[in-house]
């Protein structure tokens, strides 16, 4: 089975798995250093746009990404060549990190606007709405404070405490890192779907056959759905997945413009 691996795919697998082993068992500080942080976070470093791809949250996160590369990567490398498959993986991975950082900056901007609006006009109801939309970042004691603040809305000490709670949430959000090669993998998926649209694949769950183009379409629609739903407790970077799909589609469109026949 492993003899069928092409050189670039094999090396990407070895490097990524090796980095996970090192970060998990020997140098755990690497995960914090190499993860991708919000650009205004105290932990952000420019090299993280590359290194975050080689860090994974856990074994299952690693397995899902590397299994996808293992399944779809070799045929793409044979078709595109070693140089282009490496470009596809790296550009989609780095590009996803850059676009996701922009998306994070947009969301952080909205969060800062809410805090500034509250500072200008402290309102218990506005604070209550803020807590409700970020409830996963507060402990149960916050609701006792909301009751106290609602009964004494003009108390400057309570207003200041509410603002400090909001600023604390902002700091937590700023320091949530992103790891994983999912953006790069989604670039590989869209490339496979565009270059081999009618190739029949057999899913494990559920065990049914499906054409590559429909599988990619499902992943794309599912990703867009999760972005719009925006579940605050969902720790999956769906926008990075969508970014990988878009960047991969642009690359493949550019590469295939002089070709006529695909499979």
From TrEMBL:
InterPro entries xref list: Peptidase_S54_rhomboid_dom (IPR022764), Rhomboid-like_sf (IPR035952), Rhomboid_protease_S54 (IPR050925)
Name recorded for this polypeptide: Rhomboid family intramembrane serine protease
Similarity field: Belongs to the peptidase S54 family.
Keyword rRNA-binding: no
Transmembrane segments: 12-39, 59-76, 85-103, 184-205, 212-230, 236-255
Cellular-component GO terms for this entry: membrane
Primary location group: membrane
Membrane topology note: Multi-pass membrane protein
Location relative to the cell: Membrane
GO biological-process terms attached to the record: proteolysis
Keywords: Hydrolase, Membrane, Protease, Transmembrane, Transmembrane helix
Pfam families: Rhomboid
Keyword Transmembrane applies: yes
Domain of life the protein comes from: Bacteria
Stretches assigned to the Peptidase S54 rhomboid domain: 47-107, 175-253
Gene Ontology MF term list: serine-type endopeptidase activity
């Amino acid at each position: 089975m492993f003899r069928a691996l092409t050189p670039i795919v094999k090396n990407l697998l070895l490097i990524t798995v090796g980095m996970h082993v090192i970060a998990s068992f020997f140098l755990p500080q690497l995960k914090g250093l190499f993860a991708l942080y919000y650009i205004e976070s105290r932990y952000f470093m420019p090299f993280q746009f590359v290194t975050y791809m080689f860090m994974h949250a856990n074994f299952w996160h690693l397995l899902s990404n590397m299994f996808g590369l293992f399944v779809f990567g070799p045929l793409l490398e044979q078709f595109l060549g070693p140089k282009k498959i490496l470009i596809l993986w790296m550009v989609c991975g780095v590009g996803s990190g850059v676009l996701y950082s922009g998306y994070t900056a947009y969301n952080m901007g909205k969060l800062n606007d809410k805090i500034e609006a509250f500072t200008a006009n402290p309102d218990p109801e506005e604070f209550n709405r803020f807590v409700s939309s970020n409830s996963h970042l507060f402990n149960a004691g916050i609701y006792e404070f909301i009751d106290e603040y609602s009964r004494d809305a003009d108390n400057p000490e309570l207003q200041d405490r509410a603002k400090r709670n909001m600023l604390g949430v902002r700091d937590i959000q700023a320091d949530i890192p992103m790891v994983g090669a999912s953006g790069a993998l989604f670039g590989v998926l869209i490339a496979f779907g565009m270059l081999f649209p009618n190739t029949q694949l057999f899913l494990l769950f559920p065990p049914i056959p499906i054409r590559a183009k429909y599988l990619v379409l499902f992943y794309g629609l599912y990703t867009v759905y999760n972005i719009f739903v925006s579940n605050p407790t969902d720790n999956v970077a769906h926008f990075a997945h969508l970014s990988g799909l878009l960047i991969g589609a642009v690359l493949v469109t550019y590469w295939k413009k002089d070709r006529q026949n695909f499979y």
